[in-house]
């Protein structure tokens, strides 16, 4: 899981094995909820995968891209339109190569809504 350093700077996960496991779990969850292959780029599959990941913990857009979500803002918009309250906070991020990225979106599922279908 990403950590927050002094000054609100977040570091990318250094444990790629843990990130890969989260991605595999999300892929399996998406496959179970739809008729799509776990690595599908279909909108429904991507939305299902994002919802599963946000139920685990907040994720930033760089993590989501590494996990196979090709355009996280569009998928977040889809989930919001389906009634899921998702907060967006802007963070500064230091990647594994030591480069700082300003204004990276950190998405958090606030609370699940009742009858939403994704």
Characterise the protein shown here.
The chain has 118 residues and is an alpha+beta fold. The chain contains 4 helices and 5 strands. The protein has helices at 16-33, 43-56, 61-66, 72-81, and strands at residues 3-4, 9-11, 59-60, 86-94, 100-109. The protein has a 5-stranded mixed sheet with strand order 1-2-4-5-3. A hairpin with a 4-residue loop joins strand 1 and strand 2. The protein starts with a strand and ends in a 9-residue tail after the last strand.
Average of pLDDT: 78
Shape: globular
Number of strands: 5
Based on secondary structure, the structural category is: alpha+beta
Helix content: 40-55%
Q: Which sequence of SSEs, written as H and E, runs from N to C?
A: EEHHEHHEE
What is the rounded distance between the termini?
26 Å
Low-confidence stretches: none
Strand content: 15-25%
How many H/I helical runs?
4
Features:
single chain, 118 residues, alpha+beta, five-stranded mixed β-sheet, 4 helices, 5 strands, 41% helix, globular
List the helices and strands and how they pair.
Blueprint: E1 3-4, E2 9-11, H1 16-33, H2 43-56, E3 59-60, H3 61-66, H4 72-81, E4 86-94, E5 100-109
Parallel strand pairs: 2-4
Antiparallel strand pairs: 1-2, 3-5, 4-5
At a glance:
The chain has 118 residues and is α+β, with helices and mostly antiparallel strands. It contains four helices and five strands, in the order ββααβααββ.
